[in-house]
């Protein structure tokens, strides 16, 4: 019998093995099924990123690392300011290939040169160039600044052949989404020829004057803002030959230069003045009270998600007209008691004195250049007051918002507003108690006797209103 079993087992051994393997597998399946309800498979934990980390990661996924723009850093004598600015700029830069940084020094202050060279040595696509500073009168830096700007922009556009340049200055801090804003801005400049610059700066950007919840809110403005801005080679080719010897930024605001074109500016500034490192600057500290309140954005807005259509002129105008129409009219005399967060509001002004009063009420800059107020678009200026939107609107647009684009700036407003500031400084303070007219012989004689003749001259041309 044993002999028979061996013979059968030998003959069918492979079949027996298969049967045993199948039975074993079936038992294992039945066991796992019965135990399934008691087994918990732990899912991998999702990594926790900050908003900024996610912003950087998402941007990296989309980028093809292709070149976007050159960044021109204007500097002269402030080594500490330059170090602070470059540290921020290069830590925020998405890629050395996307943004080439060119440091341009006016003059040869050794500490500035050494600071610049240290960054050139430590970072890719960072270069340094020097401009021979022109001789200027004491306390008058404006001609030197203009000469340096022209030389540097000519170099980048005409010699280095860049098509888009972002201009920054050594006394600026920058926001987290500075580069995202300008990458989007480049797209706008390419699409819309009614826009001639992209600026990271809001002149009325103090925290109480803006909607801090709207990181992606952008506006058109006729008033050239500067302070971190982008332009194209095409625009520079138009400007270079006639670039002024002084006060270049005010020249950019002249109607014959602007040619009815606008800039884009953000609700929340993407740059701010570092007042600790900047000193008084070229303005002699004139605007320190305003500038010190404006901070660079801490938000991480991905501007690539923002459609270009929101700033396209006809579409933008249509929405602005609608907003003005839907806003509730209020008078400046009872604004503080009437304005609340249930509405948006509009206030009318019909002359420069009424504008000046409005600006002082809302604590925004009163100065006017090229007939324009800071941040104005066809004369409309918008601010946040008591946590709601308020539009300051020229009388003609107030009466019929559809006439928005018919509004014309009056260059005489510069001289009229200058007189109002002069009047506030000398006449309303009782420094001079006669007839308040800078052209009046008695007032001229008063300034001459005081040894203030140059002070009077420095005010420039004024129109009494």
UniProtKB/TrEMBL annotation:
GO cellular component: Golgi membrane
GO biological process: protein N-linked glycosylation
Pfam families, sorted: GNT-I
Record's keyword annotation contains Glycosyltransferase: yes
Subcellular location: Golgi apparatus membrane
Chemical reaction(s) catalysed: N(4)-(alpha-D-Man-(1->3)-[alpha-D-Man-(1->3)-[alpha-D-Man-(1->6)]-alpha-D-Man-(1->6)]-beta-D-Man-(1->4)-beta-D-GlcNAc-(1->4)-beta-D-GlcNAc)-L-asparaginyl-[protein] (N-glucan mannose isomer 5A1,2) + UDP-N-acetyl-alpha-D-glucosamine = N(4)-{beta-D-GlcNAc-(1->2)-alpha-D-Man-(1->3)-[alpha-D-Man-(1->3)-[alpha-D-Man-(1->6)]-alpha-D-Man-(1->6)]-beta-D-Man-(1->4)-beta-D-GlcNAc-(1->4)-beta-D-GlcNAc}-L-asparaginyl-[protein] + UDP + H(+)
Pathway assigned to this chain's UniProt record: Protein modification; protein glycosylation
Entry keyword annotation includes Membrane: yes
Binding note for cofactor: The cofactor is mostly bound to the substrate.
Chief place of localization: Golgi
Keyword terms of this UniProt record: Glycosyltransferase, Golgi apparatus, Manganese, Membrane, Metal-binding, Signal-anchor, Transferase, Transmembrane, Transmembrane helix
Enzyme Commission numbers on file: 2.4.1.101
Family classification: Belongs to the glycosyltransferase 13 family.
Name listed for the protein in its UniProt record: Alpha-1,3-mannosyl-glycoprotein 2-beta-N-acetylglucosaminyltransferase
């Amino acid at each position: 019998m044993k002999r028979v079993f061996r013979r059968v087992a030998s003959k069918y051994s492979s079949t027996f093995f298969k049967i045993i393997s199948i039975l074993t597998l079936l038992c294992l399946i039945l066991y796992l099924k019965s135990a399934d309800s008691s087994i918990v498979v732990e899912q991998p934990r999702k990594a926790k990123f900050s908003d900024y980390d996610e912003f950087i990661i998402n941007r990296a996924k989309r980028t093809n690392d292709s070149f976007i723009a050159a960044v021109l850093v204007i500097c002269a004598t402030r080594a500490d300011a330059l170090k602070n600015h470059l540290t921020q700029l290069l830590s925020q830069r998405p890629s050395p290939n996307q943004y080439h940084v060119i440091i341009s020094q006016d003059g040869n202050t050794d500490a500035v040169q050494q600071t610049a060279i240290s960054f050139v040595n430590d970072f890719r696509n960072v270069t340094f160039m020097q401009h021979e500073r022109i001789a200027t009168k004491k306390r008058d830096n404006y001609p030197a600044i203009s000469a340096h700007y022209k030389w540097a922009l000519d170099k980048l556009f005409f010699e280095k052949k860049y098509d888009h340049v972002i201009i920054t200055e050594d006394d600026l801090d920058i926001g987290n989404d500075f580069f995202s804003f300008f990458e989007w801005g480049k797209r706008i400049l390419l699409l819309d020829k009614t826009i001639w610059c992209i600026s990271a700066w809001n002149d009325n950007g103090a925290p109480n004057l803006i909607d801090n919840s709207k990181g992606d809110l952008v506006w058109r403005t006729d008033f050239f803002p500067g302070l971190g801005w982008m332009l194209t080679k095409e625009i520079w080719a138009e400007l270079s030959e006639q670039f002024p010897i002084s006060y270049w930024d005010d020249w950019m605001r002249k109607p014959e230069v602007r040619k009815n074109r606008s800039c884009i500016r953000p609700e929340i500034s993407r740059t701010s003045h570092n007042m600790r490192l900047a000193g008084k600057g070229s303005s002699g500290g004139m605007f320190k009270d305003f500038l010190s309140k404006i901070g660079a954005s801490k938000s991480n807005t991905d501007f690539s998600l923002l459609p270009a259509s929101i700033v396209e002129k006809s579409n933008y105008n249509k929405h602005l007209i609608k907003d003005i129409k839907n806003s509730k009219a209020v008078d400046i005399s009872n604004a503080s008691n009437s304005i609340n967060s249930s509405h948006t509001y509009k206030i009318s002004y019909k002359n420069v004195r009424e504008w000046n009063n409005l600006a002082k009420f809302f604590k925004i800059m009163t100065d006017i250049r090229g007939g324009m107020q800071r941040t104005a678009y066809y004369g409309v200026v918008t601010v946040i007051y008591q946590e709601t939107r308020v539009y300051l609107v020229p009388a003609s647009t107030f009466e019929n918002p559809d006439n928005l684009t018919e509004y014309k700036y009056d260059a005489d407003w510069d001289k009229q507003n200058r007189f109002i500031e002069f009047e506030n400084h000398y006449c309303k303070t009782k420094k001079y108690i006669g007839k308040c007219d800078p052209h009046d012989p008695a007032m001229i004689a008063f300034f001459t006797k005081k040894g203030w003749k140059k002070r009077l001259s420095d005010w420039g041309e004024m129109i009494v209103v």
